[in-house]
Design a protein that fits this description.
Number of helices: 15
Number of strands: 5
Helix content: 55-70%
Structural class: alpha/beta
Largest sheet: 5 strands, mixed
Number of domains: 2
Order of helices and strands: HHHEHEHEHEHEHHHHHHHH
Shape: elongated
Radius of gyration: 26 Å
Distance between the termini: 24 Å
């Protein structure tokens, strides 16, 4: 790293430390967001993707599955052949719940003591709590129907116990603590918001004060100016990641099950997206207020259409498709999977590749436009 680049980085840090409001934004706001959003809750969802392991393959098991299919809480998305396949689907986030029907389901149902296993992905407490309540209601309704059919067929009902019961198991977040779901989202929101806003306002501030013209006439190359302006916010972004992870783990008890190196790598790639968006906004805006508004125009859709506040399953289909254009969607899936599920790169590779492509594309477009603006 040459002396000119170090000088730009040092100059940028001096400006940051001189601006008290910027320091407060960087260091205090993340903690405020952590405590405010860590206790928040979301609404119910519908059409939860369900994986089914029907080992009975009997008319009785099909009748039970029809009860799940008839309710709009679940959407039978996968017919699997093993419990390992269920674990793989839930780890990748393809399925939010799974039902396992044992081989002797029909015989046990005739004896009045059939049991069905129901597995929930607890990494999203909102979807899990909805699925838990729905599974219990559906099983009770199905049991009542069976008792009614038995009474109509025999003319008497001697059984008090329900003929079928569902035993639920919650994976990854057994207590369904909302904070464990919200804190990884806070990391994504902080990285995107602070990186984009501070980068955009920093560059525009230089233009407003006329100091950017002074930098242009120096021997500094355009790429050195870009890297020098962005590097302090990269360092501060990683500090925010460590800050939120530490407080979330030690105060809220959020688990960190995934590889820490992969967590930091994914966060660093997503940080590039925020920096690129801020740099791009700085080429459009002429004042700091315009830069802030430009960033917020991209920030709000990203937050609401990424699964941060509301589960994607609760959104209309057109918004679900539109959410694929939001890099924050991929990062939230990655960071929640790493922290709560402890998955490896193979389980998040699709989202990881798309997020990387977004980061490269946004940063390349912003850097080219910024360099042309300097020329």
């Amino acid at each position: 790293m040459n002396s000119r680049l170090l000088s730009i980085i040092r100059k940028e840090f001096i400006q940051i430390f001189r601006d008290t409001r910027t320091l407060v934004m960087i260091l205090v706001i993340p903690i405020m967001q952590l405590f405010l959003l860590g206790y928040s809750a979301t609404s119910d969802v519908r059409n939860i993707p369900l994986a089914v392991l029907d080992q009975s393959r009997s008319p009785e098991s099909r009748a039970l599955l029809n009860s799940y299919r008839a309710a709009d809480y679940f959407r039978i998305a996968y017919d699997v052949q093993s419990e390992a396949e269920i674990e793989r689907l839930i780890a990748r986030g393809d399925a939010r719940a799974a039902v396992i029907i044992p081989p002797d389901y029909a015989e046990c149902l005739a004896e009045g003591n059939a049991q069905v296993a129901f597995i929930l992905d607890g990494s999203d407490p909102t979807s899990a709590s909805t699925a838990l309540s729905a599974a219990q209601l559906i099983s009770q309704a199905h049991a009542v129907n069976l008792l009614s059919e038995n009474f109509a067929r025999t003319g008497m009902n001697l059984r008090v116990q329900q003929p079928v019961s569902v035993h639920t198991t919650v994976w990854y977040n057994p207590d369904m603590v909302s904070a464990h779901f919200m804190i990884p989202g806070v990391i994504g929101m902080i990285l995107y918001a602070i990186a984009a806003i501070l980068t955009a306002t920093s560059v525009v501030r230089e233009r407003e004060r006329g100091t950017i013209e002074q930098l242009i006439v120096t021997p500094i190359r355009s790429w050195e100016l870009i890297v020098g302006k962005l590097m302090p916010y990269v360092i501060l972004g990683f500090f925010n990641i460590i800050e939120v992870l530490a407080v979330g783990h030690w105060w809220f008890g959020m688990p960190i099950r995934g590889d820490l190196g992969l967590i930091m790598l994914s966060s660093g790639i997503f940080l590039v997206t925020g920096l690129g968006m801020g740099l791009f906004a700085s080429t459009i805006a002429n004042t700091q207020q315009e830069a802030m508004l430009t960033v917020w125009m991209t920030l709000l859709p990203s937050i609401f259409l990424s699964g941060f506040f509301f589960p994607l399953e609760a959104m209309p289909k057109i918004l679900q498709w539109f959410s694929y254009l939001m890099p924050l969607r991929y990062y939230l899936f990655i960071i929640r999977s790493l922290l709560l599920k402890g998955v490896g790169l193979a389980d998040i590779q699709f989202s990881f590749i798309l997020m990387t492509l977004f980061a490269i594309g946004i940063m390349a477009a912003a850097a080219m436009r910024f360099r042309k603006r300097l020329d």
